[in-house]
Amino acid sequence: MATTYQGMTTWDYSDYLEAIENGNFQTCSSTNVSSFSQIFVPTLYSIVFIIGFIGNGLVVCVLVKYRQKANVTDVCLLNLALSDLLFLSSLPFWAHYAAANKWTFGNIMCQAVTALYMLGFYGSIFFMIIMTLDRYAAIVYTQTSLFFKHRSVKVSILMAFFIWLISLAASLPKIIFSQVKNSSEGWICKEEYPHGTAWSLVSHIELNTFGLIIPLSVMVFCYSRIIPILMAMKSQKRHRAVKLVLVLVIVFFVFWTPYNIVIFLKFLRKLGYMTSCEWEQDLNLATQWLEAIAFSHCCLNPVIYAFVGQKFRTLIVKMSKQWFPVCFNNCTTTIGEISETKRSSMSSRSSVVSSTNIV
């Protein structure tokens, strides 16, 4: 059997032997899926790792450098970027796992990489929820919300610590049960749940609940209350704010919903439905694509939550001028020369036009 774990297809026959004994389905060949994942997964994960690491690393650098000016939103942004960096740190290992079709890093690294993966995954989701609730309180209950009135950076740091504890608690089952096993095709890193327990089913339900149902419900509820208030404002920037809100919800829905649907279908398969070979091969192949798409969402987080803000863009330019003064001085000089040339050209044209009018 080609067992898909974290988007990596490895060989393990234990599930099939158990299924055959129960009479649920016959052994299926997934050679095509395995060959596809050996090329597709390392390529996509490498691209996501490079782009995401640069974007989130830049967010962390800016927020740490100008931490004296930090507010509650900045603390959430920093922890969101750190979550994405933890998540991204696991991708090179999974990419190598897919390319080699076997785990070569040992049992301790299997649990450590799983910890990075799950902590980053849940941390990113939970901090997006906190940022949504913070915006909701700031806009809808500006005058009456006690939390909004008394919130501070210290309080947000304590809340961030609490979110990390929740993320760790949600990640513990996969971390504890992840281990390296020897199969006919080599060593594999996967979750090995005790036989006769519901841990495997619970992990699927947990992923769907925390990965899609709760965050999407919170975003839809909060932003459905925020949008009417923004539309009622007379500020010229309200339409831009509304568009940003819609982008947040739509991007999250588009990137994560298909992946969670596949996870739910795998949950049904474990219950005894859709046990044909075609279903198994289709689900494994769909997992390769949709997991990579969902994971690329961490590359967009810096753009959506940080780079669109005027304050953050200003700090990036300021930091870039300090780090790369030669480049920015040359760029500034070149831009100044171009502007001066344009002004001279416009002045000459104005003189010609004026002379023509006089004549």
From TrEMBL:
Answer whether the UniProt record assigns the keyword Transmembrane helix to this protein.
Answer: yes
Please cite one Gene Ontology biological process associated with this protein. Answer: immune response
Indicate the segments annotated as coiled coil, or none if absent. Answer: none
Q: What is its main location?
A: membrane
Q: Read off the PROSITE patterns from this record.
A: G_PROTEIN_RECEP_F1_1, G_PROTEIN_RECEP_F1_2
Write out the transmembrane intervals: 44-64, 76-95, 115-134, 155-177, 210-232, 244-268
One of the record's GO molecular function terms:
C-C chemokine binding
Classification via CDD domains = 7tmA_Chemokine_R
**What InterPro entries is this protein classified in?**
CCR1-9-like (IPR050119), Chemokine_rcpt (IPR000355), GPCR_Rhodpsn (IPR000276), GPCR_Rhodpsn_7TM (IPR017452)
Q: Where is the G-protein coupled receptors family 1 profile domain?
A: 55-305
Query: Any idea where this protein resides?
Result: Cell membrane
Instruction: List the keywords (alphabetical).
Output: Cell membrane, G-protein coupled receptor, Membrane, Receptor, Transducer, Transmembrane, Transmembrane helix
Establish whether keyword Glycosyltransferase is in the entry. no
Q: How does it sit in the membrane?
A: Multi-pass membrane protein
The cellular component terms of Gene Ontology attached to this UniProt record, alphabetical and capped at eight, are:
external side of plasma membrane
PANTHER family with a match to the protein in the record = C-C CHEMOKINE RECEPTOR TYPE 5, CELL ADHESION MOLECULE
Q: Which family does it belong to?
A: Belongs to the G-protein coupled receptor 1 family.
The protein here is known as C-C chemokine receptor type 4
